[in-house]
Amino acid sequence: MNRDRSGKIVQACRYGPAQLAVDLDTLQSRYRDMHRQPVGTSVMGKRLESLRIGSGPRYVFVNAAFHANEWITSLLLMMYAEELLERQASGEGVINELTVWLLPMVNPDGVELALNGVPPEHPYGRQLLEWNEGSTDFSAWKANIRGVDLNDQFPACWELEKQRRGKAGPGPRDYPGDNPLSEPESRAVAALTERESFDMVAALHTQGEEIYWNYRGLEPPESEAIAERLSYASGYAAVALADSDAGYKDWFIQKFRRPGFTIEAGLGENPLPLEQWPDMYGKVQSLLDELLRIARCS
């Protein structure tokens, strides 16, 4: 994010692991109450950085960039993190009654690949080019650096999803891996979720301006009403999905029987253009504000 002298964001930028590290350092220097810690590492050894804001009794988790070409969701979540920290510092809002965990970039290796391609010395370079059918354009890449779709990795009817996807091996998208939670990134998200036992979760994706809230009838009764409130706040459509398994939201609902949501921000074809970010952020901010209000009162 590009800022003016006061620190206000004036322009968004292509957002990868290097930009995330700079912004985390900036926020950490400004806000003493921001707790920053890695929750794991990626295949390539990049730290999966998390932020914890607040210390209330209700626990909420929001993550972004499971998919590499959806890197703009990391930018949106970091903008929202700064908003929460400002509110906490001023004593405004509901944040002090919650503990909010944010994981802005689940898939840093994949994001870097989608943004920058394969440098000559990359240890997976030959395989990546083969998986990408010889193309050096990785801008549409969704998977992690081993060609596994991290949001098809969770043990919620994973075998059915693998059969439905029909992918024989690694590639740019839709390969669920050889086993559930085979990848360090998905394992780290699952371990954090089990350790903290969140009351509510949301995963930021793109695109479609939709909110997915159900999973095989296992969601709690209040999930649909919550989704409708999020829809009203953001203008996104609340959608009940069928024939979809093995996602983070699916696994969370199956395991905990608590409200979990996949948020599909923006419109168009991934990767979404940066020109959309002001409108996207306004809607995502309204949606997440409503999510926190609901979590506080539930």
UniProtKB/TrEMBL annotation:
The organism encoding this protein is Paenibacillus herberti
CC cofactor: Zn(2+)
Return the CDD domains for the record. Answer: M14_Endopeptidase_I
Q: GO:BP terms for this protein?
A: proteolysis
Q: Which PANTHER family match?
A: PROTEASE FAMILY M14 CARBOXYPEPTIDASE A,B, SLL0236 PROTEIN
Q: Which family does it belong to?
A: Belongs to the peptidase M14 family.
What segment(s) does the record annotate as region Disordered?
A: 163-187
GO MF entry, a single one = zinc ion binding
Q: What is this protein called?
A: Peptidase M14
Instruction: Recite the UniProt keywords alphabetically.
Output: Hydrolase, Metalloprotease, Protease, Zinc
Q: Where is the Peptidase M14 domain?
A: 13-291
Q: Fetch the SUPFAM superfamilies from UniProt.
A: Zn-dependent exopeptidases
Note whether Protease occurs among the keywords.
Answer: yes
* Superkingdom classification of source: Bacteria
